[in-house]
Amino acid sequence: MGAKRGNSEGSIVKRPDGRWEARITLPEGKRKSFYAKTRQEAARRLAEALRDRDRGLPVLGERQTVAQFLAEWRNIVKPSVGVGTWKTYEEIVRLHLTPVLGAYSLAKLTPQHVQALYSAKLEAGLSPTTVHHIHATLHAALELAVSLDLVVRNVADRVTPPKMRRPEMAVLSPVQSRVLLSAIGSDKLEALYVVALTTGMRQGELLALKWHDLDLEAGWLHIHATVRRLRGEFVYAPPKTRRSRRAVALTSMAVEALHRHRIRQADLRSNAGLAWQDNDLIFADPLGGPLEGRYVLRHHFRPLLRRAGLPCIRFHDLRHTTATLLLAQGIHPKVVSEMLGHTTIGITMDIYSHVLPEMQREAAHTLDRLLQDATDA
After folding, report:
1. What is the pLDDT of residues 81-116, one digit of tens each?
2. Alpha-carbon distances of 284 from 122, 208, 227, 322, rounded to whole Å
């Protein structure tokens, strides 16, 4: 005989074919059945279904898989994030999350499953930074699942992702910076390097600059966009934060380099004729098309450094050089933070903490001079 239960507790009955049937009433009044070979298995499945129903979760048989949910999540977040961010999400879901976690029921995903994913990716040779990005993507997706009451907790909160390794910062000294400026005098990308070194702009911001973003007479440029290449496509997007959309004052050196660059580009445009792509880009290829950051690094910037006898730094280290030189000269960190487009001054102080001891020593010497003068008076 089957067990008799109250309507809210479900029921278990033995069918004529020998299988056991567990039945449950869903909140909307529908009834759902589960089948098992033994009564014990039917009771287990009924208990799981009752637990999920009482928590407001989809019951067994109606659950989404992780793959199904991630596909839905990508469509939900697409209108609210930048093109580059969405493409990164899509790539991480397609290459890393769905192949490993996709078959699991969303409601049954555990911290152990997630931790095993991270360990497997590290063992496969992915960097801790890449695995951290995988974690951030999964965490963001599961936060939505929690808010939609599809799961009761974000299991990504219960795991330990690898720490992101901040790339070691390399900066040019004032002497090395002057050597670089001397070496680029006849380079066709002279203006790119001068503007990078004197503004601290990110490479993606520099390569997205257009002539209408410049006011050379006033000595200002305005940053409205950034560009990067994703899977063979150049993707332009607004800067991520409000502070990244900023105006930056130009040095006279940068203004002069940009004037020379405009003349060079006019000659290229004339030679290209109808093949010229009128994108209004300041830093473009010989036909007016966009430049790819890694191409600039490998085929232009690194060879230039070798010819000049300078350390083989990253292009991004020009940004670090700008900030370090300014802070070392006593420029207020708030000014440097706004120039770099950091969200808060705290970010600037954290990244460039190596400059602070020297600044503090100079501050102490300044107080000494000030107070000594007061005593002498």
Report:
1. 877 788 889 999 999 999 999 999 888 899 999 999
2. 38, 9, 12, 23
pLDDT digits (tens, 9 = 90+) for 38-80: 899 888 888 888 887 777 666 655 567 999 899 989 988 988 8
Distance CA 103, CA 105 (A): 7
109 contacts 102 by C-beta, under 8 angstroms: no
Residues in the chain: 377
Chain-wide mean pLDDT for the chain? Answer: 88
Q: What is the pLDDT of residues 241-281, one digit of tens each?
A: 888 899 999 999 999 999 999 999 999 999 999 999 999 99
Q: Give the per-residue pLDDT at 184.
A: 93
What's the mean pLDDT in 221-242? 87
Q: Compute the distance between CA of residue 155 and CA of residue 361 in angstroms, rounded to an integer.
A: 47
Question: How far apart are the C-alpha atoms of 237 and 59, rounded to whole Å?
Answer: 41
Task: Give the pair of three-digit tokens for residue 55.
Answer: 């928590």
Whether the Cβ atoms of residue 36 and residue 45 lie closer than 8 Å to each other: yes
Confirm if 204 and 292 have CB atoms less than 8 A apart.
no
Q: Are 128 and 162 in contact (CB under 8 A)?
A: yes
Alpha carbon 233 to its chain's center? 18
DSSP structure class, residue 105: B
State whether residue 184 is helix, strand or coil. Answer: coil
- In CATH, what is the architecture of 174-357? Orthogonal Bundle (1.10)
When mean pLDDT is compared over 117-131, 164-178, 341-355, the highest value belongs to: 117-131
Angle at 152 between CA 151 and CA 155, to 5 degrees: 80
CA 67 to chain centre: 22
Fold classified for 66-158: DNA polymerase; domain 1 (1.10.150)
What per-residue string of b and e applies to 348-362 under the rule 16 or more CB within 10 Å gives b? bbebbeebeeeeeee
Give yes or no for a contact between 41 and 35, defined as CB atoms under 8 angstroms apart: no
